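user: can you give me the structure for this one chain? tokens are fine.
assistant: on it. calling the predictor now.
[tool input]
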Amino acid sequence: MQKSKQNLKIQFFVTALSIILFVLKFVAYFMTHSLAVLSDALESIVNVLAGAIGLYSLYVASKPKDKEHPYGHGKAEFISAAFEGSLIITAGVIIFYEAIMAFFEPNVLHALDNGIWVLLSTAVLNLAAGLTAKTIGKKNNSLALISSGQHLVLDSFTTFVVTIGIGLVMITNYPGIDTYIALLMGLWIVYNGYQIIRQSLAGIMDEADLALLEEVIKELNKGRNEKWIDLHNLRVIKYGAQMHIDCHLTVPWYFNVNEAHFAVDDFSALIKNKFGDSVEFFVHTDGCMPFSCPICTIENCDKRKAPFKQKLDWTIENVLSNLKHQL
């Protein structure tokens, strides 16, 4: 819950900053009449709308679980990110269209020297805020916050490109550079909007996050307990800032209920130590079988049916399988 509140505060700051930068960029456009600057300002409209949507989605996602939503409200973040991606693509198409039209009706540019400083200030602010939002979003597993941060970082890069373009126009006195930059920006923005939509749909459809799985498995291998004979049927599902882990954990067959429970507690504590308290577990314990003995590392086990032969490292291939491990 603490992470959700932090996400909400950062998103509120991002939304407020987007409004300020939106105003500054339109000031720069009215000063310069640059199509590239207009394209950058139009993208800022998207950032304002996306920031507001992201703010609402994080508010919804921060609500506690209830009877109707037993896994919480975190999926709202994925819907928000999908809508933000759609807005970005729309802005990219508009920019691309305006750039094509400019080949037939070129704009007259002026006051470029003043406009360039306004743009540079917005780029620096955007970059700093975007990197902060992305860092906290990744730490708190918030796709909405990561998306907002990505918007600001992209916005800063495109603003830097526009600024360089205006500088080239001032040096070469060739206004066509402005149009070409707007054209490239339109394509770039559409591509990044697609990437955000792709990520959000993956979250909505509970697509496996292989990078996250690798990270979870790496942590388990590093702190592995000898009582955890094997791990299989592992599933990691993200609900916004929440992470839900389902798995089957094989423990010695002769453990009583309390001993098996303690083994699960150790397992859960290891993961929470790495990913925080936002992780929820559903761990099913299995008793080991005689074919488990060759991979079991428990020493001095008087129930052993076969000698130890080899320790199996846990990998994506064997932990995703629904079968107990054996040689």
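assistant: here you go. The chain has two domains: 2-204, 210-320. The first helix runs from residue 2 to 32.
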